[in-house]
Amino acid sequence: MASAARRRIAAPAAAAPLPALPDEILESIFLLLDDPADLARAASACTCFRRVATARPFLRRFGSLHGPPPLLGLLFGGPDGFRAADPPHRSAKDARALARAADFTFSFLPNHQQARRRRRRWRAAAAFDDLMVCDPLHRRCVRVPSVPNELVASIPPRDRNFVTPFLAPAAAAEDDNEPPAFSVIRTCQLGNNKVVAFFFGSGSGSWHAATPYMSLSTLPTGCIGFQRYYVRGCFHWMISSTSELVLDTREMKFSTISLPPIDGLPHRSIFERGEGRLGLIAFGDGGWPFRRICEIWQQNSGVVGTQDWQLYKTIPLPGYSDGMDIQGEDDSYFLLRPIQASDYIELLRPRQYFVLDLKTLLFEGIFSIDVGYRARFGHLYVSFPPPLAPPSI
Q: Where would I find the beta strands (DSSP E) of 21-156?
């Protein structure tokens, strides 16, 4: 027995734990991953990796190196909720993960059923009531107070049906541990020649009025409705074929810019072209004459004026569309719905929606929607996929 015991091999000593890598080393490794989906998988490995990969300063560095966060889908108002990207789009898997993780029915809102009933019975008097700003992924909400009576008094009762509330892109927070500040804007068209706007900042917690805009000519009814475009701190609305109304969110004042006259391509929008210049996208709407192209214009010097624009590139439209209709936009993408006006068989088929990448100027299919669906302007959901996306409010 003793000899057998001596022949036993002694158990090896417990291995010493490996020293933890410093955060700086982990950040350098994670920056080598050029796909946000790979970064999300790495963040799911352990709490240490997730803490480093979800830090706001790191995500800013990742975005500046590898480009903006991916486009995951389209967010509609009301009961439609979120429409995720479909395969084979490169973001389809992350979009499904977002749809599972987030609550796009907003059931986490206080008095959810009462809020749904109020949406069905919209009243003009409620145009300036309090609002809720929501983060559906992290199920957070912040109440925005109603516009003070002294500001509402400047709006005639007959014009209070034309009030449009919307969010401005969030500004970077001074403290990286805190969510970014947000702003809510309410615009209103008064008659046919005046536009006003009210700003609410989450930092100040109060409403302020912008300098009103007075037009020397008649403005189209509803010209500052839901379809607007955000570029370099400014919101843009098309008010004619050769001009746009601009609201500067930093100085809180309106102005107008001139656009080049383009024949046969009535749908246009401004975007950020880079190097301090604006870009202009123009495409047809299916009307006569059919022009199955998309034109990209850009400024020469950054001074806005009709003579400052030049045609940069002409792109054929994808598929069999006779024109395009903008369904959503972001700093980096346009979501476009094809218009098949010349082929009645095509009208009966599901519509393939496309994304135009404003950096590469390439089209990519993202999802299809049945022909019976009533298309509306939506909001592109551009974000890092779960679990990378930090709280937005």
A: 71-75, 82-84, 131-135, 140-144
What is the pLDDT at residue 278?
87
Mean pLDDT for the stretch of residues 354-379: 76
**Parallel, antiparallel, or unpaired: how do β-strands 379-382 and 277-283 relate?**
unpaired
Q: What's the token pair of residue 371?
A: 């022909």
Token pair recorded at residue 257: 């810019």
Winning range, highest mean pLDDT, from 147-156, 175-184, 285-294, 367-376: 147-156
Could you give the CA distance from residue 217 to residue 202 in angstroms, rounded to a whole number?
35
Q: What is the average pLDDT score of the chain?
A: 79
Helical (H) or strand (E) element with 279? strand 277-283
Q: Taking a C-beta distance cutoff of 8 angstroms, is the pair 230, 219 a contact?
A: no
Mean pLDDT of 106-121: 58
For residue 282 the two structure tokens come to 């123009």
CB 298 within 8 A of CB 281: no
Between CA 279 and CA 179 the distance in angstroms is: 31
Q: Strand, coil or helix: what is 117?
A: helix
